[in-house]
Amino acid sequence: MCIFCKIARGEERAYVIYEGEKVVAFLDINPLSKGHTLIVPKDHYENYIEIPLDVSMEIHDAIKRVCEKLKIFNPAGFNIVANVGRKAGQVIMHAHVHVIPRYDREESRPIEFGKSIEVDLDEVYRELTC
Ligand code: 5GP
Ligand code: ZN
To answer: Which 3-state string (H, E, C) describes 17-59?
Structure first.
């Protein structure tokens, strides 16, 4: 059983800050900022896009609740991120969403999209809509 399944079942320790019927939210063990939280479905799905819609809805509800809760730290904003697949930086193969509060006062590690690529948007659009 994977580590997040164990956390969801209460078989592995974690700082759980919110629990719903199908989801649980707990502090990331290696936080990028104060309050960095992971929201996961209790059932095992490999990544975010594998999550069924009813569970996604609860995840979304949990994101909003967690952001509200984290406001006690007075963040200037949040990054809400799901890494899907190893190439995208997914390390734990149990679906999860990162909620990362961002602060004016501290130098938190920026999440950068980097340099844009050269691409013909007409062509991309055609390929996606044909
Ligand atoms: P990923 O790169 O897969 O999107 O992110 C996985 C996240 O899970 C990382 O930020 C990592 O710090 C966190 N993580 C990995 N193992 C554990 C653990 O055992 N407990 C908690 N709370 N977080 C973990
Ligand atoms: Zn799992």
So the answer is: EEECCCEEEEECCCCCCCCCEEEEECCCCCCHHHCCHHHHHHH
